[in-house]
Amino acid sequence: MFEGSCVALVTPFKNDSVDFDAIKKLVEFHIANSTSWILPCGTTGESATLSHEEHEAVIESVVKAARGKVKVVAGTGSNNTAESVKLTKFAEHVGADAALLISPYYNKPTQTGLRAHFRAVASSVKFPIMLYNIQSRTGVNIEPETVALIVADNPNVIGIKEASGSLEQMTKVKHLSPRIELLSGDDALTLPLLSIGGAGVVSVAANIIPSDTDALVKSFLSGDVKTARELHYKMFPLIKSLFLETNPIPVKTAMEMMGLLASGALRLPMTPMSDANKEKLKKELSDYGLLRG
C-alpha cells in the first residue's frame, strides 16, 4: 500500500502563518511529478511548531488539494497519546488515506510503553498506520522485537518509516515482521533499503526532485537496478547538501532558490541557513540543473 515515493512535505509560512495557497500549489506540483504519497505534518513539515488547530488545518488542506489524485498519509504522532489519538481520528475523518505515527519524543518511554502507545492510537481508527522510528529525534529506538509485537497487536499497522540508519536493524524488522512495508526514512539509504525488501521512501529530497525520487523507486521495483543505481549516485551529492543543517532548513532554502516557494521562512527555533552552507547548497542545486540561469 505504501509503495513508492512519499514526499515529507514542508509547511510553507507567510508572516509566520501557514500559507495555505502555497500548500495547494505544492500538492499540484507533486501530482504533476508522479509522487505516490504526500505526508503533511511530519518532521519536515515542522509539526512540532504547529498549534493543534494548524495541524488539523494543514492535514485537511492537503487532503482537499489532493482530490484523490495522490494519496495522503497524515503525520499525527505526538508524545501525548491522547493528543495523537485525537489527531489520528481527525485525519481519518477528513479523508486521509493513512497516518504516520512517530514514536513519542522526550518522554523516552520503555518498549512496553511504546507498544501501549501505538496500540492505543492504532485501535482508535480503522485506516492504515505507518510507524516512524527515528531515535535521533525522539531519544528512543523502536526495537525490531517491539515492532513485531505492535504488528501482531494491530492489523492496521502495515508500514514503518525506518530512520535508524542501521540496515541491520531494518533487515531484522523485515525478518521479524514479513508483512510490514518497510520505507526508508533517509534519502541516502533508499537504494540499499529497497535491496533488502523495502517498498519505498519517505523523502525530503522529493520536495525538490520528485520525479527522480519516484523513478529511483519504480526502476528498482520493476527490476531495472541499473537505472536505480544511476539515479542513486546522481542524487547523492544533492541529498547530502539537504542535511548540511537541521532539516528542514536546507530544503526550504532550496525551494525558495528554485522558486517553488515565495519564501523559505521557518518557525523558531529553526533559523535561516548560514551563508557558507547556503553557497554549498546553491552549488549542488546548480550542478543538478535545478536553478534557472
Roughly how many Å is the radius of gyration?
A: 18 Å
Name of the CATH class: Alpha Beta
Broad shape: globular
With strands numbered from the N-terminus, the spatial order across the biggest sheet is 1-4-5-6-7-8-9-10
CATH superfamily: Aldolase class I
Report low-confidence residues grouped into runs of 5 or more.
Answer: none
CATH topology: TIM Barrel
**What is the CATH architecture term?**
Alpha-Beta Barrel
Number of domains: 1
For the sheet with most strands, the description reads: 8 strands, parallel, barrel
The helix content, as a percent range, equals: 40-55%
Estimate the mean pLDDT confidence: 97
Taken in chain order, the helices and strands follow as EEEHEHEHEHEHHEHEHEHHHH
Tell me what portion of residues adopts beta-strand conformation: 5-15%
Please provide the count of β strands.
10
- Going by helix content, strand content and strand pairing, the class is alpha/beta
Distance between the termini: 40 Å
Count helical runs: 12
Detailed description of the structure:
The protein is an alpha/beta fold and 293 residues long. It has one domain (4-224): TIM Barrel (Alpha-Beta Barrel). It is built from 12 helices and 10 strands. The strands form 2 sheets. An 8-stranded parallel β-barrel has the order 1-4-5-6-7-8-9-10, surrounded by 4 helices. It has a two-stranded antiparallel sheet with strand order 2-3. Strand 2 and strand 3 (17-18) form a beta hairpin. Helix 6 packs parallel to helix 7 (167-176), helix 9 (210-221) runs antiparallel to helix 10 and helix 10 packs antiparallel against helix 12. The protein is globular and about 55 Å long. The model has no long low-confidence stretch (mean pLDDT 97).
